[in-house]
Amino acid sequence: MTAMEPPAVDLREPAGWRRSKNQIATTLMVLAFVIVLIPLGFVLFTVIAKGASAISWAFLTGGPIPPNVVPAGIGGMGPAVYGTLVITGLAAVMAVPLGVLGAIYINEYGGRGPLARVVRFMADVMTGVPSIVMGLFIFSIWVLHFGYSGLAGAFALACLMLPVVIRSSEEMLKLVPDPLREASYALGATKSRVTLTVVLPAAIGGIVSGALLAIARAAGETAPLLFTILTVTATNANVFSGANTALSTQIFANATQPFLGAQSRAWGSALTLIAIAFILMIVARIVTARFTRYSR
Amino acid sequence: MSTAAQADPAAPAGSAGPLAHRRPLGDRVFQILAASAGALVLVILALIAISTSQQASSWFSTEGWSIFSVDWNPATNSFGAMAFVYGTVVTAAIAIILSVPVSVGVALLLTEVVPRRWSRPIVTVIDLLAVVPSVVWGLWGILVFAPWLQHIYTSVGSAVNGIPVLGALFGPPVSGASFFTCGLILAFMITPIVTSLSREVIATVPAIDKEGAYALGATRLEMIRGAVWPHSQGGVVGAVMLGLGRAMGETIAAALVIGSSPVITSHLLAAGYSMPAVIANQFGEASGEFRAALIGLGVMLFVITIVVNLIARGVVERSARRQRGA
């Protein structure tokens, strides 16, 4: 039996202009990525170079924040670090449970019903509401009646986080396979029990990591805080009343100052803020890697 | 609602058997709790619209149509918004023009070119870009980037001075903090979102279409143009519009690098102003009519971004539905 000769097909890349065009296109795509790298590298380099010299333990915990004319190295950003952590934390305490509940409604209860579809669509739209509008909103509805406070800032941040948490949690709930739910129903469990003890634990990795990313974004927000917490220089331990301060608003206030001390404090605060956001992002990655059961 | 409907067929027909029992109270309470959390989104959006328009009503009623005038002068109580609307549109347009080719390029690189193990680090870099806070972009922009750009602007400005169109766009006066600087920084900021949304859309192109194109002997570029692009066009347009909405609402970076000068000019390298920027910069010292005008700018911004977002989400949903149907 003689082996059949396979038909000759030319599988090499086409030659000439078509090939060159393809190579040019590929080069342009790689170039696009390089263009993205340049500003990112530039910003990170500057913030680390200028911020690292400003940061010390006293800078992070000491206070009060000195006036603009004071040179670098005196006083600290302690009040702002405290404010950022407490206000963002309070916002997370409000937005994450509500967001997860909303996602549960959309995915487990609402399904394809009209209300769930409207809520899902509007949550998407709400992610596009500018952060400054959230600040004006809380100013109009809360600050005008109850005054400036950390709580008002937390409300504004929570409004920004809520739709993000809803959408990311919903994506994660969607990945939980139906047979898991059906098996629990078959055992006679009620819907709330199935949701809370079967579906939610199955999706918790993704939900937590999505929430952490939302918190990381919120921690850096400035615009919603400007008109809700004001910007003071001493630590206000009571987050529920009285003007407060945060790293982001301090950077904004110091960025336009001609004094080198103020600028140095701004760079130090910027590095602190980026570090907080990066740590949250890394934790989110670890959570995703270790606790995600279902992924796309 | 669906539990009861699902349980019904299991119940013996015509009799209230043990399976047809009423749902326990806790179960119903939880459903109501979840539904109210979902409805909260609608409540908040409605409250934003109502409360801010209420605070701004005196601006709308006293100024009437002159809210669209160019004259903004708190000292004389004239508050026309047009210069800020112009600045918002111009900076967002610059951002989109600069960001879209790069974003779509990276999205294509991620989905069609690099192997999976390389795409992770690239996505990480894009995510890092998204995590840099707006105020840090602004700080870097005003203290490092703008002074550096000033030199470039000066030489570009003197080079094109007198040339018809280029002179009007890039000629003097130039300023380090300007429309163009703001547009550049906004472009950096919206690139992650446009990239990740475009990537999601492009990833839904069926493999069979791509393989078909390759089987016909297409190069990668021809495959992208023939198979990927027709499929993902609508979604990418939606992603770009969402980026546009972001760019228009971006506040703090714009407030720091736009130059704070309420003018309407064709000179892109000159100082300007935008709606969110003026709110952030002037709200602190505002009261009465002035404050109402600033909140009114916020209302306008809210309406514009909501409309842009509604259209964008509509476009994305429609193209997604068409793909599922195809």
Description:
- The complex is a heterodimer of chains A (296) and B (326).
- Chain A is mainly α and 296 residues long.
- Chain A has a domain at 79-243: MetI-like fold.
- Chain A contains eleven helices and no strands.
- The longest helix of chain A has 36 residues, at 17-52.
- With 326 residues, chain B is mainly α.
- Chain B has one domain (61-325): Orthogonal Bundle (MetI-like fold), CATH 1.10.3720.
- Chain B is built from twelve helices and two strands, in the order H-H-E-E-H-H-H-H-H-H-H-H-H-H.
- Chain B has helices spanning 2-7, 25-63, 82-113, 116-131, 134-160, 164-170, 179-203, 207-215, 220-249, 252-257, 275-282, 288-325; strands at 72-73, 78-79.
- A two-stranded antiparallel sheet of chain B has the order 1-2.
- In chain B, a hairpin with a 4-residue loop joins strand 1 (72-73) and strand 2.
- Chain B starts with a helix and ends with a helix.
- In chain B, 50% of the residues are buried.
- Classes of the chains: A mainly alpha (296), B mainly alpha (326).
